[in-house]
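Study both lines:
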Amino acid sequence: MLDHLVERIEAGQFGCRLPNREVLASEYGVSPHSVARAIRALVERGLVVTLRGKGTYLT
């Protein structure tokens, strides 16, 4: 899932903001916790920034 998210980000499929965790979890057939781990990895790679209560934005 993480590699696929990176590919989608690099391809510009999300615009400026990622869908929320529940939407991504449903899309990938995983738990929201798994999505949260993937988002943390994206933050560590410098691809996104998470603003509490506002969402996850591409950098």
About this structure: The first helix runs from residue 2 to 10. The chain has a mean pLDDT of 96. The two ends are 19 Å apart (CA to CA). The chain is about 50% helix and 15% strand.
